[in-house]
Structure formats: C-alpha cells, structure tokens
Write a structure and sequence with these properties.
single chain, 637 residues, alpha/beta, 8-stranded parallel β-barrel, two-stranded antiparallel sheet, 16 strands
C-alpha cells in the first residue's frame, strides 16, 4: 500500500544492491554475481531547466495559470498572492530593523503590553528554569478555566496563533495585510514520562538487538540505539520530538498533519505547513536506512578517492572495473561493464555520486537491502536479521503516509516543509524528501527540505540535492537553518565514540550558514527552479541575505523567502514584509493545555536570544510610549 510514490521510485529487477561496510580498500574479498549486487539505482531520462531569468510563482493555487513571474518586473505579497510593481533597487540599504511603527503596526496596544510582560518574564532565570513545574502547579491550583484565561493573556496569546481554524483566520489576515504569510504547525504534544520514552526509544526491530551478534560485527555506532540517548528530547529546547508508540499513533499524527494542511489551504492562498517524518513511523527505520545510504557513499569514496569536489570525482568504465578489482571484488569485465551501463543514467560515459546514489524500491523485501559483509567470510548478510511481515509493512506504511501528505498539500495549494532532525536520521529523511520533490515539484515547489548548518556536511548535502534537481528537472525547495540539535549531537558523539558531526564553534556554524545562502542565491540568479527559505532570527544574517540579493539583482519575488517564529523578532519580519520581501511567521496552533511543552521551549529560546529580545523590548516600549503620547492607546490594526 505505498500509493503512487512507490511506482515513481521503482527500479528494474536487475538492480544492483551493493550495501557494504568498507572500512579500508582491501577489507573484504567480496564476490558478486550478476544477480546479487550492490548499488541501488534506476534509469531515468535526464532533463535540465533552461537557464532563463524567470521564477516560479509563490502562489501555488494559481500556479497552473500563472506559472512564472519574470525577474525584475514584479514582487509578491506573501499573505495575499497579489502582485505589485515594486522595484528592487537598493532595498537592502533601506532596511533597518529599528522602526517600531513597522515592527508593531499590526499589533493592538494590549498586545504590546502583553509582549513586554512575556519578554520580561523570559528574562527571569528561575521562572525559565522551572517553567514547566510552575505551569503544572498553576493549573492544579487555579483550575483549567482560570489557568487557560491566564495563559491566553500571556504566553499562549503571544506565541500561539489560536486553537483552531476559526481563531487563526483573523491573525493570519492581519499579518497578510502587512505583507507577512504563515507557516502552520499543529503544536499539540503529549507529556510522556522519561521512563516510558526511554523504553520506547530502545525498542527495535525484532531482528536487531543492541548487543546482538549482527549489531556487534563492525556496525557504525552512529546508527545504533544507545540507552543514554534514548530520550531524544533531552538537551533540545527549540524543536519538537515525536516518540514512536505504535502504528495507530502514526496514523493519528498523519491525520493531524492533514488537518494542518487543510487549515493552511483554507486560511491562506500560498501558505506552508510543517511536518516531521519521525511522527510517521519507527525512527529505527530512518536510522537503518541512513546507515545504508552512508555506507553506499563510503564505498564510492573508496572507489574514487576523496580528493577534489565530490561531484567532480568520476569513474569511466575502465576505472570502474579496475577499482572493483583493486578492492577485491571478483567480477569479470563483461559483468562490470553491464553494471556500469545501468548506472550511467545520462549515457555520459562516466558515473559520479549522483549516478551511484539511488533509493530502494519500497515494494521489495526491505530487509534484504540492509546488508553488510560478514567480518570473517565476506558474505553479505542483513543488518536486520529478519523482519516479520508486520515490520516490513510498517516501513512501507511510513512511505505511504509521507506520500499522502504530499499529495494533499499539492491538492490544497500548500507548500510542505519537512523539518530536519538528528544527523543519524537525516540521510534517510533527505533522500525520502528528494523522492517527494521528484514527484511533486515538477511544476512549482511544493516540497521543501530543511538543512541544518551546524553540520559539517551541510554544504555538500545541499548542493548534491541541488544537482539532483537540476539533472532530474524538478524545482528544488530548501529551508536553511542553523539547527536545533547541536548540544545533543555533540554530547552523543563524544559519549558513543564517533566523529563529531557538528561544526567546531558557533562562528563556524554561522560561516557555514552564510556560505550556503550565498551559493544558493548565486544559483537562483543563474537559473530557474531553486527556492530557498532563510529561516533565522539573526538580523545580521537577514541583512546579509538582502544585500546579496541586491548585488545579484534578485527580485523579492524570485524564489527567496524569510521565516521567523510567531511572537519573536517582529522588527525583522514586518520590516521585510513592508519592503516587499516574501516573509513568513511560523504559526503554531492547538488547545491551551496541549501546547504547554511548546510554550516551555519558547521560554528557553527567548532567554538564549537575550540580545535580540532586549532590542525587541526596547522597540516595544518606544512604540507603546509613542501611542500613549499621541492619544493612540487603541492603535494598531
């Protein structure tokens, strides 16, 4: 039951499946027959976008009528989908995020007072450190009704859009009048105990135990469960964590995401909805698929060496054969030539990493694809010894759920943003998202992947996917963030004993962020089909991006978006909106009692962004005093 996505990801029966554990060039003398091979691939026609300077409309609803907007002639207001004729001339130099009228013109005076009250509470360490306990005690002492009223007048009212579609519409309409669109997320979270979460986190497929024979034979420790880190919520304050409970819960999560997509489609013409893939199936599936993909990449590195840019390292037919022989693979020239021809999808006469990389057919027996060579015999054997029929079905169910969401997003004219997660899940998440792009981003960008720039491999990962999009002829959609899991990832790498995937310092992360944005903007200025959201509260990063857009003569309508959280950094969001840029607020919604974990994280995050919050508090005071001095106590709209 993999829906239409399975057919779009099918492969010929003779596909190679070389998923091996190569640590050094001569680790294993692995014999491969023409039927038991190694790399998963498929043939597809190669089409490229013409390098014309026009860009896809941001209004997905009207995309079939109004496919492209010529660069330099129009700009689009995010909340409305309407076009204006604003000229992008030195706009970056006019942007100063210090105008309180622009920042808070959409807010009532009561909302200004509430913002000041909330930000001041967030600066009190005791309240932030114990915010969850204090909220629990308050709810018990005051009762649900009074507690709910209190939260609506403070944290909930400031950081959450509302409970349901009807309460969201006024806020979204008001933001749209000021040039700001919405990214919707149903932010309800369960308050699960640590013991229960750890128990669920350590649960695995029946064929894979942490201390089992297969797991202990030269397995990559990154992709194994570790009890100390079984609760993935620890040391993560700025991102939600989904805990796998059962397949019924995954179906519930799918229905919640469908509801979110429906609300986004009903309340705005060109909105976004956010999704996490760990909500849709067992995280172990993503972890094991990630290991397979990483090992395919390692094997390729052993074939080509690691010098030079990864996409410039190629193999011709003779080089492919000689490298297989050098690595101890017993294969004659005829067989290696047959495999080479199958992998050479564009018939260029050589293969690179993108020819090498493919995704397995979800209709096949999944367990047979998770293979490593035996340390003693060199024979292939599965990472997961056996999968029950139920477990095999669970993995297919995850792909099916993802496809359901993507299909609904396209039907409703909503863009679907897939959130990034921990690095040991991310290779699988990114590959699944690219497969969704291939299917749904043919006419305009529907699916967006998220890339975390705290990772050392962020730049390579982004531009490998950009190159896939260019070759396969689909629109590439990316959200670029600094990332949410730095502290947890660094601690896990040190404790478990593998190379730290995180950039050495925060400035190094910022440097990676800037480099990725710069190169993406250059690609946007040169060709069609690339769309990027710059998701940051950092004023310097936003200004830098706007300056780069001006330098490259990229118009505000040309595939570049900005994003910030509701209730934070309004001086940036609404200044961008007033200047005609495509900017969005991440708008959580849900009942008061069920979004408390989200509110708890916002308290931590605001304390961590002390400098930015202090500026926003000062601007709130300035705007409040201006209104009172001018008899505008009921100002804002």
């Amino acid at each position: 039951p993999c829906s239409n996505m399975a057919s779009s990801m099918s492969f010929p029966r003779s596909a190679l499946k070389l998923v091996s554990k190569w640590r050094t060039p001569m680790n294993f003398g692995l014999k491969l027959s023409s039927r038991r091979t190694a790399i998963v691939y498929y043939r597809s026609s190669s089409s490229k976008f013409a390098k014309k300077r026009h860009y896809c409309s941001t209004n997905a609803v009207d995309a079939t009528k109004e496919r492209c907007v010529s660069q330099g002639t129009t700009s689009r207001t995010p909340g409305t989908g309407t076009l204006s004729t604003e000229i992008h001339t030195n706009a970056s130099h006019q942007l100063e995020f210090s105008d309180p009228v622009k920042a808070f013109g959409s807010k009532t005076t009561l909302e200004l007072l509430r913002g000041l009250f909330v930000f001041n509470l967030c600066s009190i360490n005791f309240l932030v450190d114990h915010n969850k306990k204090l909220m629990d005690v308050s709810r018990k002492l005051l009762g649900s009704y009074i507690f709910s009223k209190l939260m609506r007048a403070s944290f909930y009212g400031h950081f959450v859009g509302g409970e349901h579609e009807q309460s969201l519409k006024p806020l979204m309409d008001r933001m749209a009048r000021h040039g700001v669109g919405s990214i919707l997320d149903y932010s309800v979270e369960e308050d699960l105990s640590k013991d229960y979460v750890k128990q669920q986190g350590m649960s695995t497929f029946s064929g894979l135990s942490v201390e089992g024979e297969v797991a202990s034979h030269d397995r990559d420790v990154r992709f194994r469960n570790h009890e100390k880190f079984a609760d993935r919520r620890e040391d993560v304050h700025s991102a939600r964590t989904y805990i796998y409970q059962d397949e019924a819960k995954c179906d519930d999560n799918t229905n919640i995401f469908l509801h979110c997509i429906n609300v986004a489609g009903a309340t705005s013409k060109n909105g976004f909805a956010a999704v996490k893939l760990t909500a849709l199936g067992r995280p172990q599936f993503l972890m094991q698929l990630s290991e397979v993909l990483v090992e395919i990449r390692h094997f390729y590195d052993h074939m080509t060496g690691t010098d030079g840019h990864i996409l410039k390292r190629k193999l011709d037919k003779d080089g492919f054969h000689s490298n297989l022989r050098r690595m101890g693979v017993d294969m004659d020239r005829a067989d290696s030539g047959e495999y080479f021809t199958l992998m050479d999808r564009d018939l260029s006469g050589d293969i690179d990493l993108l020819d090498w990389n493919t995704l397995m057919d979800p209709k096949t027996d999944m367990a047979s694809l998770f293979m490593v060579p035996d340390a003693e015999t060199g024979e292939l054997k599965p990472i997961i010894k056996t999968l029950t029929e139920e477990e095999n079905q669970q993995m297919k169910n995850m792909i099916h759920r993802i496809d359901i969401l993507a299909k609904r997003a396209k039907e409703k004219g909503v863009r679907l943003m897939i959130d990034a997660e921990q690095s040991y899940f991310q290779p699988a998440i990114s590959r699944l998202v690219v497969e969704l792009m291939k299917k749904y981003n043919r006419e305009y960008p529907v699916i967006f992947n998220t890339y975390q720039c705290y990772l050392k491999e962020a730049y390579n990962n982004i531009f490998l996917d950009v190159e896939v999009a260019r070759r396969e002829g689909f629109h590439f959609g990316a959200k670029i963030v600094r990332g949410a899991y730095m502290e947890q990832e660094r601690k896990r790498a040190e404790e478990v004993g593998y190379a730290d995937p995180v950039c050495e310092t925060y400035p190094a992360t910022c440097e990676m962020f800037d480099e990725c944005i710069d190169k993406l903007l250059k690609r946007i200025s040169d060709e069609e089909g690339i769309n990027v959201m710059v998701a940051t509260h950092n004023e310097s990063s936003v200004k830098r991006t706007v300056n780069k857009m001006a330098e490259l003569q990229i118009q505000p309508s040309a595939g570049v978006y900005f994003g910030q959280l509701l209730g934070m950094c309004d001086q940036v969001t609404f200044s961008l909106g007033k200047a005609g840029y495509q900017v969005y607020k991440y708008v959580p919604f849900g009942p008061v009692d069920e979004v408390l974990p989200y509110l708890s994280r916002r308290a931590y995050e605001n304390r961590g962004m002390l400098k930015g919050v202090e500026k926003e508090k000062k601007l709130l005071w300035v705007e409040l005093k201006r209104r009172l001095a001018n008899g505008m106590a009921f100002g804002g709209n």
